[in-house]
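Purpose: get a first structural picture of the assembly so the mutagenesis plan has something to point at.
Setup: two entries, given in the order below. No constraints added.
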Amino acid sequence: MANRGWDEFEIGAMLRSFDGVSNDIATTQQEDRNYSQSNSFVASVADWRIEKPIFAKDFCIDCQFCWIYCPDMSIIARDKKMIGVDMDHCKGCGICVEVCPTNPKSLLMFPEHADEEAELAKWPAKESKEK
Amino acid sequence: MSEMKKIKNLKEFSTSADRFEGANLLCPGCAHSIIVREVLNATNDDLVLSASTGCLEVCTAVYPYTSWDASWIHIGFENGSTAVAGAESMYKALKTKGRLKQPDRNPKFVSFAGDGASYDIGFQWISGCMERGHNIMHVVLDNEVYANTGGQRSSSTPIGGSNTTTPAGRVSYGEKKTKKDMVSIMASHGIPYSAQVAPNKWKDMVKKIQHGFSVDGPVFINAVSPCTTEWKFDPKDTMMLTDLSTDSLVFPLYEIIDGHELNITYRPKTVVPVEEYLAAQGRFKHLFKDEYKYLIKEWQERVDAQWAYLNRREEARV
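Result (structure tokens, whole complex):
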């Protein structure tokens, strides 16, 4: 769908989310869907981010708090496991980091240009609780 | 398809396939899409959706893209609810005539609207839908302001808030009126179910949404949706703000069945003072000046009185 001029809009538009027949979307995961070019899934908002979340699998307990509270459907959960962050749709709001209950957190925010492997190598250690 | 989706815990819930897509243009940290996801993921049935004009509508349907993986329509500011009610009437008529192509499917009819489109502009239309008894659910994404057009006050805006049409300054403390009690107004139509929900209490919310889908008749849901832009807080604090709103009892979570039977569904273990809820938001910053501090006290008294009222109603079962 190339860029269209202001006078090329149709009056009242109907967009199809999928190409072809799509009967059971509610039970089809995103990788198996036949998205059309007018579904916003094919677009990206990655350039909105100033900070990005990095996911440290070792500390994750798969509580799925980040999945339920992510406003951008960017936490990828499959088979009850959290497997990563969808960097095309993440806007870098940082909610996932705030709601992460582990110690140390399994998700942390870093500047957009940070190197994932380098940051994972120096991940903060467990904080002792002060009483 | 018609049996209820089983959601026992969050892990089980997380196997849902989202029918609301990313790369919509809602602000980072917007609670709207958290609420929409929780509503849509509460069922596996087909959905017929509408959105009235508002943040949700302008951000999820930016030509040439749509963020919805279900039938979705937008018409005007006021008539999102009637559009869905019309679709529901048509569905019923075709079903009676036996002309449905897939009669075993059991679609759900949901209309989303902001507080502007529900409390003010679409009020008459929603009231009509509730009165006519369509089998639809109306979900209000209540961010207490016309956020889409730049932060004008709506009749959902609480007292003391500084908005662009009710700014706080030397002569005024901002909005002068208290919030309209929409859940009670809708319950007064005698509808089978109306409830107030919050996205942080996802289990309570999913339970209410599923109950709403299971009853026959109109359902009204009021969902608190903290607005990072107009409430003026950091995008990462959306869930903290929602926690504060439910735990301070500014947004008590309750349901009203058949217009009279009230149940409180969430009682915070420790009730947070309203002052903390106000302090977390930039729009109430001026209330902490000495001359306006009496408003915070009044606010606390009002919240306490409302909580006592809800408790008395729950006890009396009227």
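The two ends of chain B are 36 Å apart (CA to CA).
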